[in-house]
Amino acid sequence: MNPELYNQVIKYYRNQLSDEEKSQLEQKFQEDENFSETVRSYVRMYKTIQQYGDQQLNEKLTVLGKKLSTAQRSDAPVIKEKRFKFPPSYNSAFFYWTTAAAVLILVLVFVFTRNNTHLSPDNIYQIYFSPQKIKTYRGDNQSVDIIWKSAALAYGNREFDKAAFLFESIINDSTGQYRSDAWLFLGITRMEQSRFPEAIAAFEHISPGSTMTEDAHWYMALSYLKMNQLRKAKELFTEIAQEKLSVNRSEDAAKILKIFPPVE
């Protein structure tokens, strides 16, 4: 775990960054897939901590990481010969921050099991909703390419009204280029706008054989969950968990089913 990045993500989430810092973070989020996944995991972690009301747990994680790092520096044996050197990307600080993060996860699991086996629909949604990263393409139609790039930029900048308009323009284009992609991201855009019935309607336009199908089902399930239509949401999560077309999606769906609220 990177403590500086974690604190920066929290400040971004709280809208406490300067415009320049916010712009730099968003640009790197768009350009670096590993970085964006790390940021999303930190946001989920922070939301989970806040959701369960333990306001001191976030500070404890930081203190724990510092203590572990300090303990490692003071207790580590000195090896004078043939000392193994970790590569720059893997050092003791990273290892011990990872340990701290693992401790946090164990604490959260304890909180889940101690308080309630099932989570509310809103809790599950906050933990598992993460907008899909958008990619730019180069296709056969240059004019559609330009619209798609503009839509991707608006989506990345959270200009959702503009993004929705551009996605709809692509959908209505006679060439059909990027149409399935546009339906998917139009749906996610509507979710960001809390317009969940429109999001579901967009996802339903994606054909079963499309490479976007499982992503569409994932976000559709979350939309039904947010609308408190638990039976439909559970059916879709069950389908995703059983089909296992995507390891990450199927594992997350299985986890959700374990904490899913009772369906009457």
Explain briefly what this protein structure is.
Helix content is 70%, strand content 0%. The protein contains 13 helices and no strands.
Provide an overview of this structure.
With 264 residues, this protein is an all-alpha fold. The protein is 70% helix and 0% strand. It contains 13 helices and no strands. It has helices at 3-13, 19-31, 33-51, 57-75, 92-115, 121-128, 142-156, 160-172, 179-192, 196-203, 213-226, 230-243, 247-258. Helix 1 (3-13) crosses helix 3 (33-51), helix 6 runs antiparallel to helix 11 (213-226) and helix 12 (230-243) crosses helix 13. The relative contact order is 0.08.
Write the layout of secondary structure elements.
Elements: H1 3-13, H2 19-31, H3 33-51, H4 57-75, H5 92-115, H6 121-128, H7 142-156, H8 160-172, H9 179-192, H10 196-203, H11 213-226, H12 230-243, H13 247-258
Helix pairs in contact: 1-3, 2-3, 3-6, 4-5, 6-11, 7-8, 8-9, 9-10, 9-11, 10-11, 11-12, 12-13
Notable features of this structure?
264 residues, mainly alpha, 70% helix, globular, single chain
